[in-house]
Amino acid sequence: MMNKVIKKIGFLFALLALFSLAACGGGEKDASSADDSFPEKDITGVIQWGEGGATDIISRSLASIAEDELGASLIMQNKTGATGAIGAQYVYDQSADGYTLLFGAENPNLYQLLGISERDYVNDFVPVSIIGQSYAGIVVNKDSEFDTLEDLVAFAKDNPGKLNMGTSGTGGLPHVASAMLKSELETEFNLIPYDGDGPLAVALLGKEIDVTVLAVSAAQEYVDSGDFKMLAVLNNSSLDSIPDIPPITDIYSQFDAYLPWGPFQGIFAHKDTPEEVVQKLSDAFETAQNDEAFIEKLTSLGVDPLNLHGKEAEDFVKANRSTSTWMLYEAGETDVSPEDLGIPKIGEE
């Protein structure tokens, strides 16, 4: 009798072990198939800047094409504030499953240096795609008394703080550009913050500000319509989209040390997103960016299409971070050395 009981107990333990193994195997299969079936629902795209700006225009144009490649809808929303840090933090706080993506610009590369946020691209996100490198232009209203950059600089030097320059906040493109001007030309502007290129363009149209620095992609339509005058592009050569606008180095050669440099647009996922999901996203956006109409759109906006993924994208982000952080530090805009944050100078990695 006792032997029969022992045999039954042994059989029950063996059965339980079999069920446990089946459950474990089933779990692994489910996890794998979850990656294989991605995406199974809509994907949220968070644009860290306001409507009508360069990042917004480029992100929405690409999203509508990428939906076909992904087989899912991209629900785009703008989350602005704190030089884009609100949107970046929001994406970081969501599940690392690929269903919430950050459509951002270069700004997170400066967050730690300027004390804006503890987040940054290199440590907290993984690039899905670097879409393109754009350029910036110094713009004034069509009715401005300034017709050349030399006129603007002369007035700003003789009247420190009198001209209102619109910015997108600390670490934004106009702020970095104003630091370059101050360092090399001893100009001083009264900086007034707005939430991105779109609101900056509206402010300049309404003459709330005297001057600003916009991505060419955001300023192009206003220049073409005659509403804005672009005094120079922040580059060391002219741009095909606006060939009549002089590069700043043609006027002030000392800026050659900073250039080429400019804003970029990219798509980022949480750093812990599964590699298979990141690869699926990258493949879809890579194909979408090969769309001829999208390439023409970028080119018309003065953006160089890049379509970078994987290590190339990571290296690009790191190089931009090194250039931007050291530029601001050497211009005296921050007491924090990039070296203290483990950021090397270009060529000293």
From TrEMBL:
PROSITE patterns per UniProt: PROKAR_LIPOPROTEIN
Domain of life, per lineage: Bacteria
Region forming the signal peptide: 1-22
InterPro entries reported in the protein's UniProt record: BUG, Bug_dom1
Keywords: Receptor, Signal
Annotated Pfam families: TctC (PF03401)
Recorded family membership: Belongs to the UPF0065 (bug) family.
Protein name according to UniProt: Tripartite-type tricarboxylate transporter receptor subunit TctC
Species assigned in the record: Pseudogracilibacillus auburnensis
Origin organism lineage: Bacteria, Bacillati, Bacillota, Bacilli, Bacillales
